[in-house]
Please model this.
Amino acid sequence: MDHHYVGIPELTSVPRVAVVIDVMRAFTVAAWAFARGVEKIVLASTESEALALKESRPGWLALKDGARAEGFDAVNSPGLLRSRDFTGRTLVQKTTAGTVGALAVAGAPLVLCASFVVAGPTARFLRAGGAGPVTFVVTGEGGRADEDLACAEYIGRSMEGGGVEAEPYLHRARTSRAAADLAGGLRSGYHPDDVALCLEIDRFPFAMVARREESLMVLRPVAVPGAPSGRG
Model:
């Protein structure tokens, strides 16, 4: 199947099916948030919008990239998020690349957000729905991030059915510049387990679908038949 792999700057038209990839760390964090009980994630375009949404809706929480900041309840780190209890809460997420990519394709009829922790369920969801060629939005490094491209290619291959060996794709992510930066402590809001948590293939049994709900772009988990039960 002739999928397309593009960076955010290369999006010149609205795709029919878009899968937005951010392995390290936005859509690994989103999956963990759902596993920890979040009901829905609202994708914000700016940090000020994220705070405004939180302040206007009682009980909503806000999450951002980088170090902790006033008004934000969490940072974009799966290691720092995994022990939190978010049961029934709404989380507003703003990150440098992942949320930007999802908002860039908000007009597409079908938008999924993905990382390795939901890669298999994402492929099964697309295959079950008879999705044709997919536009994979590689959000990191202007579309050149190897961890995101590896995940996109793994999902694309898995859509064809049959067994696809994950390790070569995980190796590319493990040896990527983003992984080295995280492991070296070059990104703030970091936990030492973040890289390992971002490379847990199919940890969760759901795909993540983003849809317009009124004026907001909202991400929700969708259970996928046949997906592993997960360990989250």
Q: What stands out?
A: The longest helix spans residues 146-158.
